[in-house]
Amino acid sequence: MSEKEKGESIETSEAEIAVHWAEEGFVYPSAQFIAQANMTDPAVYDRMALDKCPEYWKEYADMLTWYKYWDTILDTSDAPCYKFFKGGLINASYNCIDRHLAQYKNKTAIHFVPEPEDEKVEHITYQELYVRVNEFASILKNDLGLKAGDRVTLHLPMVGELPVTMLACARLGIIHSQVFGGFSGRACADRIVDSGSDYLITMDAYYRSGQLQDHKEKADIACDDAAKDGKKVKKVLIWQRYPGKYSAKTPLVEGRDLIINDMLKKHYGARIDPVQMPAEAPLFLMYTSGTTGKPKGCQHSTGGFLAYVTGTSKYIQDIHPTDVYWCMADIGWITGHSYIVYGPLSLAASSVIFEGVPTYPDAGRCWRIAQNLDVNIFHTAPTAIRALRKVGPDEPKKYTYHFKHMTTVGEPIEPEVWKWYYKEVGKGEAIIVDTWWQTENGGFLCSTVPAIKPMKPGSAGPGVPGIHPIVYDNDGNIVPAGSGKAGNICIQNPWPGMFQTIWGDRDRFVRTYFERYCKNPKSKDWRDWPYLTGDAAVVAADGYVRILGRIDDVINVSGHRLGTKEIESAALTVPEVAEAAVVPVKHEIKGKEPDLYIALKPGIKSTPELAKAISAAIVREIGAIARPRKVWIVPDMPKTRSGKIMRRVLGAISNGTDVGDVMTLANPEIVELITKMVQGEEGKPVIP
Ligand code: WTA
Q1: For a 10 Å CB count at each end of the chain, is N or C smaller?
Q2: CA 604 to ligand 1 centroid distance, Å
Q3: What is the pLDDT of residues 562-572, one digit of tens each?
């Protein structure tokens, strides 16, 4: 094990964190919701009890259409690299499209909402999706000669062509690797090289905040950088944002760049038989960051992944074919793969794809889309909820949409923010599921089955049916539910959605996720291989799991460990506060102290009194131990392109250490401004 890797596992071994964020009471689903829900039988938890694992996963496999039914539910011969539904043959594209045609061919599969509001929304029916996927698959097969097992890198924005491309790959068993459209050409190059892709599929341009961005220029950088690293991209295939018109300024590269919209003319009417893939064949790669080292290509399977996202979309998202479902994530993240494309389409729902920014051109945009498309299931992340609450707290009530169901994912949600989501966005009518999971997992780990379990603001909920979490301390002792203590949350059992390995790096896979609590490294019994999530969690006596964040988001103050989320949640009880982020600052005696960064709601002035009030709120909500060293009221938080607050950057500023590379942030310019503020070159620090 390298020093770096050791650092990774040491940081994920924190336990017994003192938790001060008060438990909220239950909120119950309405009778109206329960009456229409897919899953209302509490016995589902008994059916999927730990002692019945893995047999119960048949329930999810049976939601799919198989060419050949599997014979072994779980093959553990290469533990912890598992094979689910061995012997089965299946195709994901067939399951998301072809099997729905008899009943639903005229139903919308995808509503594509362009960012410019004067541009027409595109309603792609299942039949139209079938036609487009077949024609594009014909290009992949006949023009490029691609076949099952080949990897292709996609670098597409949020447009209808993205699921068309993914499903065309899946139709042929080609492994797609979609890189988030907002990532740079350099990041794309790393993923091309790691996956060994010969082809890059991209788009000329797309809209973001009112600007038509030249996206093709990133493809040029990606190809140049990949070539420097020894991987030559053979061809770049380019979708046109406006078919028939090239919308990028960057010129095409002779002999390398091909316009898909032109190529398609030769493939009109083509039909490509779906390839019957083994259940365990990889469906896609999704790269994610570790604490250290290069991005990891999480390899997801065909049969297992599809079964798991279909099952959880049905039971947790409560998706019916009649629903209009809108997940506002980007398909470039795992949430989009599982819960914009594969899960909803496998269930024949209508899935919304929105090109733009939720707050552009104004804070009402999301709610106009919801109203116009009659969306009834809404799915987003706390960061977006906080942003919408900040810029337009009273906007939702101006629109006539009605959600039955809302999801939150990606970070712990502060009870204050949860309550706004529930009351204002959901109008008190929609149930909320807080879904905790990771890129590695394929689908939800903890959440509530909405018609069976009540909601608890700030808690994700128990393990979803079939998922059995367990919390260990540093020494491998079980931290019991209801003890008030936190530790490292692990999953005891395998599930079909879990990734199969890190692409090309089985050792890193085993080391990062299984080594820590493995009971016997030679064992072929899954019971010996708990999966380490790398999150700290505390489990209430009722089994509800509260995620405290990555273990490195936890601050040890004089031996008391404080979840940064708890402090932030306390700060958010001050009505003027829009966003809060806590970072640990080194302290000689106490070990660490929290530094608190605050962004205020629009129009609110930063004053020393307000900073004092925020500090007092924390002491009031948690205790003097959590009193922040300083309250920095900043104009905006440094954020990643996916909207997560970069606490690492704030921590470096607070500690006066190197902030590292910030160019990939959504707003790199803010870093210098905050540094000056905190390190005293400009303005006066606000000290309570
Ligand atoms: C965090 C996103 C609290 C967690 C699907 C996890 C959450 C990491 C939640 C994975 C949630 C995700 N409550 N924390 N509901 N959902 N997380 O890979 O720390 O982008 O380990 O997957 O986000 O992020 P990833």
Answers
A1: N
A2: 31
A3: 667 778 888 99
